[in-house]
Amino acid sequence: MLPPTVAADARIAHIGIAVRDLEEAARFYREILGLTPHPVAVADGAQILEFDLGGSGVELLAAADPETPIGKYLAKRGPGIHHVCFRVRDLEAALAQCRAAGYQLIDEVPRPGGHGRRVAFVHPKATAGILIELTG
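Now predict its structure.
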């Protein structure tokens, strides 16, 4: 269990959804939900279109190239939920707690993510098959 200093403020930051066509996937969020996206960001070879849902959000992730992580994900699994991102009070402390508890990390240290955020991923083998992203 995470100490209160790490988990007390934890909340869903966003759900990442892998898509083949960013604009086509965005239509539902624009036309039906009436949401306006943030400008497209690029990180780790993915084009990211984020919609804010009042404190949490949805990120649509399209591959800039088939050899990027999202490109490989789409080739293997197709479109769908890619990851769940949790915002934590102290990203470094959360990673240290993951290491201490034996969780396999994809990122040992935070790295740049979309929209200028620092992120780190926990391997899905450690979290019941769900890719977890942590952000500060």
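The mean pLDDT is 92.
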